[in-house]
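A brief tutorial aside. Many learners find it easier to grasp structure tokens once they have seen a single protein encoded end to end. The record that follows does exactly this for FAD-dependent oxidoreductase. Read the sequence first, then the structure, and try to relate runs of similar tokens to stretches of the chain.
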Amino acid sequence: MTASLLFEKGSIGSLELDHRILMGSMHLGIESDRKQLNQLKAFYSERAKGGAALIITGGVAVLPEGGGDHMFCLTEQDHRAQLQELAEAVHQAGGKIALQLQHNGRYAKSSETGLAPVAPSPVMSKVTKETPIELSVKGIQEIRDAFIEGAVFAKSAGFDAVEMMGSEGYLLNQFLSPLTNQRSDDYGGDFNKRMRLPLEIVSGIRERAGSDYPVIYRMSGDDYMEGSTTREETVEFAKQLVKYGVDALNVGVGWHESRIPTVAATVPAGAFSHVVSDIRQAVDVPVIGANRIHTPEVAEDMLKQQLMDFVAPARPWLADESFALKAKIGDREGLNMCISCNQECLDHTLGNPLLPVGCLVNPRTGHEWEWSLKSKDKNQKERKIAVVGGGVAGLAAAKAAAEQGGQVTLFEAKDQLGGHFLLASQIPGKDKFLETIRFYRTSLERLNVIVKLSTKPTIEELKVYDKVIIATGVKPYIPEHLKGANLPHVANYSDILSGKIPLGKRIAIVGGGGIGCDLAHLIAQANDMPADVKNFFGEYGVKVESPRRVDVTIISRSKRAAKGVGPTTRWVLLSELRRLGVNILKGFECHEITEEGVWVQSDEDRQFIEADQVIICAGQTADRELFDILKEHVPTEVIGGSFDASELNAAKAIRQAYDLVYNSQVEATNN
């Protein structure tokens, strides 16, 4: 990037950094398992090689009751040893790393720790459904000492800095808020007393670790909880942290209980920069921003506007391990962008059960160590491989096969690449899907893959290849037993998303899964004026309403609408549907479609829903006709929706494509 502020040198206390792009803290779901240590080291080492100026680890518990499933805990000697190895691995890769210290407080789960959660006051957590035990003064002091000792350990283990987790509603944040701190002793009551614990920790670290050891505090810029810490108190807290010796402030936003989304794709880029800026204007140490800073250009703009001094994105480093390096050399076309889907990252670490973190758009994430053991098959260069289908499964297969040296040709029946992923990019918040298609298109060009659009290859054409990979995807499923499904006002989701059929005004969507709810979200947006239009008239005091109103009803057989959508995005989607006036009938089955609407039935009720258009979102079937014919003539594999149409799962399809190519390569090498 030409004359970029992102790539000016900076410093956090005594720590000099080559540029301004850090890697924010992420829990990977494999910490504390020594069998996974090589993978953990490989993950962080690749990000160090990929240009992260400073890597911040996932939260490390200072005491057992403040930890959780697959979290390091500093009371375990082996965990300390693993962390030291991790720091050494990052340094060997040429990187710098900070240890984040954490105590979950009332967010800790007794089912994971085996211990009762503790907090400033016994206020039940909506996240865990548990009421924590109120800490005694002695208990508070033990936590204080554990944080201080944790920082001393970080320094002795070779970590370049330490960060305290005081945001997102965890323990130190709980002490600050009157919602969770209802004490009347020296650690609660007025704001000075609610600040006492974190300030004592910072003071103790300075005393024990020395004045020159870099200390970062991740503070909450806004809890987005009614009745919580005020903006004035938050700014004052920032000033006090600096007064007590903090070298940098990393500003987070929101609690897990907040009803304002902070990580969903629907949140505008840089939406919380004003919160970071308020803190920056009040202090004279570097201030770091993180939330919804997903692209180099947004990050650059944040620095140009002097809203922050450093950026610390997290998920973008899952999508591309060379995020900063590619930004530095200006390879925007080659950058694999995070699409904020949360499917393989936050949905894994916040789900039940916890699963290791991966990335939908980057199948290498979470498997770096495994992949490092695989060598390229020299025989692949002689192999001619055809991939039929240009959705994400086919794109991933073509890329992987070309990376292994194959001579690859990709056939796509339509005039654009992307398949269902391209259709889905129209859904609100999913426009970034186009970035993934762009990344694959660029990758295939660089790998000299021949791409033939608007082409359906014949059996004879495919017979000349050494191997054919079928990725023809899925077709919408129309229930044969559904009376009236062939009426002219009935469509399927693909017809609507591809623009083949215009929309009606009273729409019934049959199917309340992810596709049905996403489609309802798209359609119901007609009830909302575009933000730029609304803002324009708002400046002149004129209230405007959408010129087109649609009535949308979702008919869901399940009593849980959007059942297949991940936990970190489902509530956001359902909130949007409610805001837009979408009616959701849960526990109802569509029995008949008529010219006037649909008859639906639940266990207790039968209703008629008036509709001038009915859209069926009842699942999909595998399109594997070509595979069934071709497999008798040439070695043929099938992947993606063609292999399993039970759900549209791009992460699974991409991973399957890479596994197919790389595992085949390993088998060929071993034979």
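Self-check: The chain has a mean pLDDT of 94. If you spotted this yourself, you are ready for the next section.
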